[in-house]
Design goal:
By secondary structure, the protein is α+β, with helices and mostly antiparallel strands. It has helices spanning 17-23, 40-43, 51-64, 80-90, 98-105, 107-117, 164-177, 179-189, 196-199, 256-273, 307-314, 319-327, 364-373, 412-423; strands at 8-15, 32-39, 71-74, 125-128, 145-149, 159-161, 206-210, 215-224, 227-238, 245-250, 278-286, 293-299, 342-351, 355-360, 378-381, 399-409, 429-433.
Length: 440
């Protein structure tokens, strides 16, 4: 490697201060210069997505840059991965095609692709038009099943359905809220030629999927010039009701042979899709009783929710992989060189079918006190004083996230104990109230 080379210019789509710091800690950071390409506030969690305006603004930044643009990286879901694919193609940069991105992120199209490449690992599914006169008539699955938007993130508008009444209640909520992401997603779909089996299943549709149970885990990796790599496997630990995530823990405690099966399925599916020069994480359910292994979904990006864990355990953030894949270089792969053996992003949630107003959030003194006891623990407070929880965007259908707590330890038991100790310092006060008219 020639250390005298001019640093490469990498544009970060959806830049913010937190992840800017993460990127700045990659092992060979001196080889790169990082530039914001729209902030996260401009790109994600929008009430109204004007994708054409976003794309044009990003184009202007790239066109006006006085230097060579060497790559674009992103770690957000919608609409970042699609916008990155569009810009990469226009500027001749490395990255998965828009069609490959959509074959991962359009849940129905993705299931069709999965069923071709890995039929034994694809759950039963069907499409639902929530605006049809009788949406239930198109469901071909037995109760219980899950319904989810064709395009969503953070488990938003995902419901476990046990009977007809639950289905009808969920459909009413979906009809009120699905257009926020579904309609702008349609503008992305209009940029590709959809196969006949997918053409009518638009962004405002739902997918119904068979109820899956077991241990949830996610290999994360990359495909670079056709070479597939998995750089880690994350456990996605759910609550006892299997409705909400408790934490994303690394490394996985799923048996090695099961992890290897999941990685092999990911390789086959991504190869079949034609996914190249990009990062991914693919979520699975493994049923310990039946040994069945089923794909949950494919995310065509690294997950920023995994960055802390890789850094604490391996001594290397997953941003290292994304940056090198975007430039076509060989990434520096470290393993087990971090200060801890286990790490997790944990969620402090408020479970309720009612709304609440935030009366108090942890103070700066609270966070300083926690830092003295657990200096490696990082806290992101999600809510603000005076905020109604119902105004939080893209929450799951059963809880609200108050804070994300990043914890590192030398065992899972110690990790859980440190999380429980950490939340003793995080004083939230909520005033419960009824949901506003319309339910959100």
């Amino acid at each position: 490697m020639d250390d005298a080379r001019e640093p490469k210019n990498i544009f970060v789509l959806g830049y913010d201060h937190k992840h800017g710091k993460d990127i700045a800690r990659i092992p060979d950071v001196e080889r790169f210069r990082f530039h914001p390409l729209l902030s996260s506030d401009e790109l994600v969690y929008q009430e109204d997505y004007d994708l054409d305006e976003m794309i044009e603004k990003a184009r202007d930044i790239l066109r006006s840059f006085q230097g060579k643009v060497d790559g674009i990286v992103c770690h957000w879901d919608f609409p970042a991965t699609s916008i990155a694919a569009i810009l990469n193609e226009e500027f001749g940069l490395l990255g998965p095609s828009l069609e490959a991105i959509l074959k991962c992120s359009h849940k129905y199209w993705s299931r069709l692709e999965q069923s071709k490449a890995a039929p034994d690992n694809t759950p039963n599914f069907c499409a639902i038009d929530p605006f049809a006169e009788d949406p239930l008539a198109s469901v071909t699955l037995d109760y219980p099943f899950w319904i989810k938007p064709i395009k969503a993130y953070g488990s938003a508008l995902g419901f476990m359905i046990a009977n007809q009444n639950e289905f009808q209640e969920a459909i009413e909520t979906v009809r009120e809220e699905i257009d926020r992401i579904g309609t702008p997603f349609n503008t992305i779909l209009d940029r590709v030629t959809l196969p006949a089996a997918v053409a009518d299943v638009r962004g405002n549709y739902l997918i119904a999927e068979q109820f899956m149970k077991g241990v949830e885990f996610a290999p994360e990796g990359s495909v670079q010039h056709g070479r597939f790599r998995a750089h880690g496997v994350i456990d996605m630990v759910m609550n006892s009701q299997r409705t909400s995530f408790l934490r994303y823990e690394y490394p996985s405690r799923v048996p090695d042979q099961v992890q290897a099966r999941g990685i092999d399925v990911a390789r086959k599916v991504l190869d079949s899709i034609g996914f190249d020069n990009g990062c991914f994480n693919m979520e699975f359910f493994w049923n310990e009783q039946t040994d069945e292994l089923l794909i949950i979904e494919i995310n065509p990006r690294i997950s920023q929710s995994h960055s802390y864990q890789f850094e604490q355990v391996d001594g290397m953030s997953n941003h290292e992989i994304a940056v090198h894949v975007a430039t076509g270089d060989e990434p520096v792969l470290l393993k087990g060189e971090g200060p801890y053996k286990q790490a997790a992003k944990c969620f402090l949630r408020h479970y309720s079918d009612k709304d609440a107003r935030v009366i108090r959030t942890p103070s700066g003194e609270d966070l300083k006190a926690l830092s003295k006891v657990q200096p490696e623990t990082e806290v992101d407070v999600i809510v603000e004083n005076g905020q109604r929880l119902s105004t939080l965007m893209d929450q799951d259908s059963y809880s609200y996230v108050l804070a994300e707590v990043h914890v590192a330890a030398h065992s899972t038991d110690e990790l859980v104990a440190k999380f429980e100790r950490a939340i003793e310092f995080l004083s939230f006060e909520l005033e419960e109230m009824e949901l506003p008219a319309g339910g959100s």
